[in-house]
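Worked example

This section walks through a single chain of length 234. The input is the sequence exactly as stored; nothing has been trimmed or padded.
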Amino acid sequence: MLGCILIVPHGDFREVGAVPRFWLGISVISLGFLLSWGLSVYTRYPAKVGNSKLGISQQAKRINNRINNNSIKTRLWQQVYKGFIKSLSIKYFRKIKTQHSGLNFWSTTILSRLLLLPMYPGDDVWRYLWEGYIQTLGFSPYHLPPNAAELIPYHTEWWSLINHPTVSAIYPPVAQLGFRLLALIDLKVWLFKIAFILADLLICWLLSRRFGYQQAIFYAWNPLIIYSFAGGAH
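Given that input, the structure is written out below as tokens.
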């Protein structure tokens, strides 16, 4: 979440200093992603001690027994150590995961995307808007590039932001149909972003149903995925 907040003001890469600040935020998101993924994998397997496999909960019991045998005298430190060992227990984490994994997964997945809605988009979105727009006027984006003479009367205030204006459409027909339907509603970046986020969340849901929340994190909390759809509107 912190990483998402950090990159929101730095979506326009034309601004001086935007790129390094953007990558700083992406690095924070990546760190959180790796920690979350690593923790989810860590709690699935027992730890090895010597030649035997000893679960962390069993290790916790051993250390806890030492605490109860007055190897640590201070009562306050007893509670601190007990709490720390309990937090490392596989049984404890599994209990959390079974009770709250769905809530944690979806709250993080949805909120991280909503935080990026105000972010300045990548330049691809202006082509999406344009290609949807000219379809509503009866033109084909496959036949006419954005700078075609026939389309000059229909230039919008954001027309100059379209990338590769001399090249006609490269996106497949299904994508073009989506652009057209969205353009019929309104030519707003936030509308296209919401559509992309909904499609992204549908993929998250399908993955969670097929593989479970633990495996779906690999896609749903991936920094590239979060930025590309919600932030960059790609």
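What to look for: Residues 46-54 have pLDDT under 50 and may be disordered.
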